[in-house]
Design a protein that fits this description.
The complex is a heterotrimer of chains A (about 280), B (about 325) and C (about 270).
Chain A: H1 2-30, H2 62-98, H3 100-114, H4 118-129, H5 133-159, H6 163-170, H7 175-211, H8 223-232, H9 238-266, H10 268-274
Chain B: E1 3-14, E2 17-28, E3 32-36, H1 43-50, E4 58-61, E5 64-67, E6 70-71, H2 77-80, H3 83-86, E7 88-91, H4 105-115, H5 122-132, H6 138-142, H7 151-165, E8 169-173, H8 181-197, E9 201-206, H9 209-215, E10 218-223, E11 226-232, H10 233-238, H11 243-256, E12 299-302, E13 305-307
Parallel strand pairs in B: 3-9, 3-10, 7-8, 8-9
Antiparallel strand pairs in B: 1-2, 1-4, 1-5, 5-6, 10-11, 11-13, 12-13
Helix pairs in contact in B: 4-5, 4-7, 5-7, 7-8
Chain C: E1 6-16, E2 24-35, E3 40-44, H1 51-58, E4 66-71, E5 74-75, H2 81-88, E6 91-94, H3 108-118, H4 127-137, H5 154-166, E7 172-176, H6 184-201, E8 204-209, H7 212-218, E9 221-226, E10 229-235, H8 236-241, H9 246-263
Parallel strand pairs in C: 3-8, 3-9, 6-7, 7-8
Antiparallel strand pairs in C: 1-2, 1-4, 4-5, 9-10
Helix pairs in contact in C: 3-4, 3-5, 5-6
The chains are: A mainly alpha (about 280), B alpha/beta (about 325), C alpha/beta (about 270).
Amino acid sequence: MRRALRSRTLVVGLGLTLLTLFGVIAGPWITPFSPTEMDFIAVLTPPDMTHWLGTDSFGRDVLSRVLSGGRVSLFISLCGVGIGAVLGVAAGMTAAWRGGMFEVALMAACDLLFAFPSFVLALFMMVVLGFGLHNIIIAVALAYLPIFARLARNLTRTLMHEPFVQAARLMGQGGGRILLREILPNIFPTLLVQASVGLAFGIVMEAGLSFLGLGVQPPMPSLGVILADGREYFTRGPWVLTMTGLVVSVALLGLNLLGDALRDLTDPRLRQAAGP
Amino acid sequence: MSRLLEVRNLRVTAGPLAVVRGIDIDLDEGETLGLIGESGSGKTVACLSLLRLLPDGLRTEADVLIYKDRDIASLPEREFRPLRGRELAMVFQDPVGSFNPAKRIGWHLRTAIARAGHDGPWRERALELLDGVGIPQPAAVLERYPHQLSGGMLQRALIAMIVALKPSLIVADEPTTNLDNIVEEQILALFRDLQKRLAAGFIFITHDIGVAAQIADRIAVMYAGQIVETGPTADILAAPRHPYTRGLIATANALAARAETLAEIPGQLPALDALPPGCGFAPRCAQARPACAQPQPMRPVGPGHAMRCLLDA
Amino acid sequence: MRDPLLSIEDLVVEFRDPHRPGGVLRAVDGVSLTIAPGEILGLVGESGSGKTTLGKTILRLYEPREGRLRLKGLDITHLDEAGLRPHRRAMQMVFQDPLSSFNPRHTVGEALAVPLRLHRLCAPSDLAARVARSLEEVGLRPDFADRYPHQMSGGQLQRAAIGRALTLSPELIVADEAVSKLDVSVRAQILNLLRAVQARTGLAMVFITHDLHVARFLCHRIAVMHFGKLLEIGPTEDVFQHPQHDYTRALLGTLHAREARARTPS
């Protein structure tokens, strides 16, 4: 029963995620409208057969903008989480392995960053770095770096005294080799789960920053920019905000379900319980 | 002595896999059965199924399941639950799991004493019980949490609770396996004391034939989900008949005799999904013959002594 | 007496006490002993006696707090990981739990090929044949090279672990409770294998065990540990027949009590 439920989580999560990916990649071919082309005859039309999600105050097709903005948001999230993950995992694994002052200093730095909610941290980064696509990626990466550093450090610490790692040391394998060959393959599934959940929060983070006007700048569409636009004339055209929000929710739901399912699949205890 | 437990053709299956493949158990009051087997032989699963403690997904079936003249196979869970703990007790290999980590030892004993229907102040009874199982400074131990006691001490505290409940059937699953030699000796001595004090039936599960030799009246040897040999302890130790039992005892004897090389049983235990059609031990048996590919029934080979093998038939 | 292969002088190993902040636990407390080439030394004691810590410190998997470790006269106590690497070959280990001593993501063949490749002990073209030979030496079919650890039984994996330790032709193997997690009917196979390997290669072995029967069967000399201290050490039969220390007598007492009761069941 639990297995069936879990696999349903996986199927739904994977389905929604693939649907989102397909939408944002194939966006230009799905809708006939340009995300930036204005049409002042069709300003704020409610959803109909032509404009499935309606149009905004400039007559731009909301669906086209959401798909195109989703691509920008996803790109930012992917780059940010990716950079944060690679640097954080490298730092965390090295810290666990080397120990000593390096580990103490890194973990103290992580604790300091953890003292702020990730979003506040990213907000602060944007104020320091200034607006723009690159900086928002850096902000997301910096928000995720401590999360991955701590996760990788803790996972590495639990594995580094395992007999198979000690055996590798006795065989004469060096530290870098052991981390890459022996430990990384074993902690990778857990990191992947964190990354898939992180991807969802990266999108939220971008949307939040852009919504506040600190992130992606109009006219380039991103989910945050569209939501910010929609808020201004919510009473006249509520579908812009609600429809965009709905699409974002579906995408986040998909990523989170996928993350949950992946975590269950990689949890050896659950795997064991499912066995005979 | 009266018959406490009668089990015929007990089977436990996990989907298509047969974990326990039809075992019979007879146990009298005051008798101790040593159930010997290796990991995966089904010895623990068989006993857990008797107490209805199996996880979901494992199905139990038996032709006969009689405890104290009552058919407990058909008993609804509501009526079975009061039996468990009060009449049927289980001691696990890891005593930690039998305690609530958030509660002190005193709370556990008080619960057990209350459940036993004891009137009057529980504290004195608890101190008496702890003292009776050789726990020093029992008053201090009552205030301790389970994680503050060593494995040996916890196992003692658990035995004290069992003494309080005075169950009629006690299943002990490798209760000394995780303990050091000296502590193991002490716990085994406690069990022998328990045998004298309670008129209960014991099923003592172990992989160590040396431990069974010290505590059991009768021994049943399990292999691949079946009992392959059963008989009085002295007979089994002195004259094992089944090739598997012989192998186990030969290894133990060779170790004790410091032989140049040990008598070894070749090969590995069969996997559950690849059990041979007939005798489970045949692939490892030096005396296997074509007829071993047929399922073997238990054959009597002496008074109270039977085995599942063609030899000497 | 021949020059010792390994000599241990006043070794102290400490760990941080998880229950007391700032406190330390002395796992090994001033142990001195020597291991001669080709001998099997049994390290016996109960859990918490420090025997496994001592075994792993010999291999420099743990750092000693005080004392000296000499491998064939060379002081290896404070060599760093890089300085240690050339000497690692000489000392290998067989662990208690064979499953966790293999990386679950690598096949057994890969695990055996790593040391060969790392130390350039054989040409890449001969690697598969060499791994197959290593497996056969410990009684496994060559096709086990393609299996993952979870596809093998405990006994088979422990054979592979012994094979892996032997690939580097070590002079010393530390075997930590190498049979205690194995099924009873498989233990004898592994004990016989260890004895045969030792006789064939002439390597020295430190055999850590709590099982006195096993120690007596396999070991030339016995060292008894209790609370981190070495209580006594001597030829196996001397220790078993004339134990010097009260604790050793108590430990051996359990053995005799068992044998006596097993002979006369109630």
